[in-house]
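>> received
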Amino acid sequence: MAPQESLLKVYGDRSYRHVTMARHQGTTIAFAMDSARRIVYSVLDLAGQQSKGDADAAYWSENPAELVLPRELAEVGFAVVGATAMPTVKRGGAEAAVDERPLDSEIDPYLSTTARLTADAPFHVVSDGTYVVVLRQSIGETHPDAVYKLTDGGCSGNASRSDYVLSGSKKVPLVRDTLLCDRFLLVDGKLKPVLEVRYKRSRHATRPASAKDTLGTEDMEGRPFYEPTQELSLVRNLTRGRFAAVLVPTAVSSARRWQLFAHNDATGRIDSFSIEQGVQGLFNTQGTRF
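>> returned
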């Protein structure tokens, strides 16, 4: 083996298109999107066994792990509406009926999550010190994996349905060339989804089903509440992953702001957004008066 080859960690299991890297709590994490729009990651674990030698290449994950994305999407600034559940898609591509409960082994883990909304474009990863934040461009309304809003508040990609929300004669897409945000916790070298507290019966973060409804991290059937993908719909006409995001300090020591820059393909200009980081670390579009 050539000396330079011993310094490289090569994954040849798939074809990769876009890569990025982040440093989180002293740990380096590499991310990549493959040709099928799946996002995977590898962790540089220098705290592990030191018997692997001096080269850092030996301490990367043996195989990249696929990033598990949520099964719900929430629009930033519209918390009262609640999250929209992605359709449950069975392996083979057919959507499950409303009253059908497929086994986990029967569910397509990609088409049943917001992973299907990922555009084939460069993405970014930011660490806020507590969470690993993944920001990615969404697909457009004509993409084969696009889903559309239903009159009952859900969404679907089933062309045979007739209960879609319409704008004129066109179906309203759930996302359209905008920015999506997800957060993860790094636990034992794995990126884990963030649990969320909601009302157990209504499954809503702020609206209880009744006076007897109680808060918790699981519903009445024991299904955990995970933080939904956040849709920043204020970022519009995004193409080719041309955006950047950074957390910046403010004059108030305990307050930070999200600074976003995004190329608007319709206007040809760079849109700039400065949004307060909320108490939970996400986006407070209402702002705070000190």
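>> Residues 13-284 form one domain.
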